[in-house]
Amino acid sequence: MDFDDPRLTAIGLLAEAHTGLMARLQPALSAARLSEVDFETVIRLARSPGQRLRMSDLAAQTELSTSGVTRVVDRLEREGLVARAACSSDRRASYAVLTDAGRTRLESVLPQHLKDIEEWFTGLLAEGELEVFLTTLRKIRDVVRPCATAGAHDTYETEDA
User: What is the mean pLDDT of residues 114-120?
Assistant: First the structure.
């Protein structure tokens, strides 16, 4: 058995890099009173059409269970960062919608978060490496998490509809 197999090295380095990056990024999130999952939820909403996602799509994107995403949205809703909106075309579905307060909280953390990303991640890459890295990550993500972009390109119904 070859314990120096480059596949083991690749997955080990990826895990170590992820763990290290999350530790470096956490202080800014904590200062904004956001956990990793809270931040992931509000940034996904902010980057989605209409700053909203169906709860089922949000669950698929975050890989949380339906009850898990419900608990996160409940907590964010109590803080005023997210609101729920009914889906007029499907009574069983509802949307999680980023509120103005959620947008404000996100805007308060983003400058430091982006600075940290630049310092500990993207700024370490030479010119051209980031684009190759992003392409590679998308290739892997699309196979291992095909639901990661669920609802991201859908049009949403307006409240007038």
Answer: 97
Mean per-residue pLDDT of the chain: 90
Structural domains present in the chain: 6-144 (1.10.10.10)
Distance (Å, rounded) from C-alpha 12 to C-alpha 68?
Answer: 28
> Which residues face 84 on adjacent strands?
96
User: Contacts by 61-68 with C-beta closer than 8 Å and gap 24+?
Assistant: 61/147, 61/148, 61/149, 61/150, 61/151, 61/152, 62/37, 63/145, 63/147, 63/148, 64/37
Token representation of residue 45: 């909403």
Task: List the one residue out of 40, 153, 44 whose CA is nearest residue 97.
Answer: 44
CA distance 81 to 70: 14
End-to-end CA distance of the chain: give it in Å, rounded: 62
Q: Are 116 and 24 in contact (CB under 8 A)?
A: yes
Quote the tokens at residue 21: 């990056």
